[in-house]
Amino acid sequence: MVKVEIVEEKDPQSSGNSPYASSSSSRHSSQESISSVSSELSAEENLYDRISALVDIVPPTTRHNISTKFSSAASFVRISGKVIGNIVWIVTTSALLVGLPLALSLEDEAKIVAQEREMIAQQQGAQQMLSPGSAYPPPPGSNQAPQKGIVPPGF
Questions:
Q1: Are 52 and 63 contacting, i.e. CB atoms less than 8 angstroms apart?
Q2: CA dihedral 111, 116, 118, 122 (to 10 degrees)
Q3: Cα–Cα separations (whole angstroms), residue 132 to 122, 138, 145
Q4: 0.85 exceeded by the pTM?
């Protein structure tokens, strides 16, 4: 079991310098003294003052290490952002200068091929309609064998 023991200060004058000290017994009014100190600090100090007071707490070598690491991380972010920005710029301009005209020419070529196929289909349909015996039976007196495959006109 833990035994709790209250330690009394031996020098009453040194306790007067502490912001937590009070004239009454510390056993009874510790909450009162802490609340009065916290209200005084919040009225007089702002966040910047509290952070700037940390300089006294952190040793100079640790502050220097933190500062060095923070500045190197910031420079890394700045340099990597610049490199990524340049890469994005190169990719987008290349896509616009090379890819867009290429895509447009491929689309035009596909349209031309589709038109050619359509024209060939129309010609084949016209030939089938005009060729003797393709859609109609041959006349009874003709001895011609039906043509095999598609024959262009004039042959």
A1: no
A2: 160
A3: 18, 7, 10
A4: no
